[in-house]
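Narrative of activities, Objective 1.

The group set out to show that a structural description can be obtained from nothing but a protein's sequence at a throughput compatible with the screening campaign. Below is one input-output pair from the validation batch, recorded exactly as produced.
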Amino acid sequence: MSRQDVSSLKEKLEDLLGPGRVLDDPEFLAGFAPEDDGGGGRPLLAARPSNAGQVRRLVLLANESDFKLIFSSSGPPRLRGDTAPSRDAVIVDMSTMDGVQRVDRRNKVALIEPGVTFARLQSEARKAGLQVLTPLLPRSTKSVLASCLEREPITVPRFHWDMTDPLLCTELVFGSGDLFRTGSAAGPGSLQQQWDRGLAQKNPMGPAQTDFMRIVQGSQGTLAAVTWATVKLELRPSIHRLHFLPSKEVEPLVDFSYRALKPKLADEFFILGARALACMVKTDPNEIGELAGSLAPYTLVYGVSGFEYLPEKRVAYQEQDLAAHARASGLEPVDELPGVTAREVEKAISAPIPDPYYKLRPKGAFQEIFFLTTLDRVGDFIALMESTAREHGYPADELGVYVQPIQHGRACHLQFDIYHDPANTEKARALFTSASRALTDAGAFFSRPYGEWSDLAYARCPDTVEALRRLKEMLDPRGVLNPDKLCFKGVE
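Output recorded for this entry:
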């Protein structure tokens, strides 16, 4: 698009949104640009709507004037490329739509706008005696809604009943410009009228037998923009304790996980490799290396909580049962690790991680690989990743490993972090690509296919590609939303 055309587009957007809500600052726009600028697009402008009506008018204008939109609600750093333009596009920065519209203690639910961060929602939830279900160490600029839409796993698997949790009802603007509400929010009546009748927009399925939220979730903004959503909250505990299970091998921790998660014991529950755990609690690269060398190769972290009624007894029976399951798996719970206290880990996971982002701490840059599998396959995937790393000259003991059980342990999120110097991106990228292919061939399920993972994931399922392209034609017929992502490359 020519400079004159961009200037004309800016005037149109300012007429729609008002003064000061359209940005053309090169430094700000560069934060959305692709990592590799050869062949990619660039942000033309950034638009900041203030309400759902403006979002809808933006989408309608994009359809009329034939330009592309990419919606973003989190702040930098942007790590996965889902908001990087593949063609010239206008960034729709939703971060200023940051209202917490309602926190309902009785129904344990909050209605939030896209720009609400975890710190903001935690502050509001705490006032009502509630807590937010969070992924592991979200960055300070991370949008709660974006995290839910991308299905980032939460650290408390006993509250993870469905893959969509903790996301509930949503208000959508499809690429066609149509406004739509999902689940029980669909009506009848306005939100206020529903609240007056005691409703809380907590049932995500609907209207009727449709489930559009499940279609839009994970679509990386290619089908619809979300202007608000309701999310599940849980009671804030009156007593909370963390315990550790260190192990030389991951298999005993997997065995314990099956034993403990089936009866839904414990709250927080995850496994970390030594390097990943060290990154959580230390910021200096030298201290991270020293601590990782003193820890067991793998540590399972679990929390127990007591609430309003008989909290001490609840904690006591859980600790007793969990210790018995641990010993049956050949493990022994401890309250401290060499150089790490439970208090340090609890502090780290109870709030968004301060800068620098913990994965940047060891060497200044990283590549991450994550996918879904089952717990019984974790050991095989770790061995494969370590073997591939060694083939590329990368020390296997320097990989970050994170295992997050989901849906009460039915499956798990398995993540590997390749920490590297920013000057060695090419070598790390080669390992990333090679490992991604090897893991795919071994059965890794890339349910959130960013970038080149989309080719790996969709190549195995052509019928899914056909169905999704038909959906794209229905919901975004002119292809104005986040072009070329997922399996929509070349779709107009």
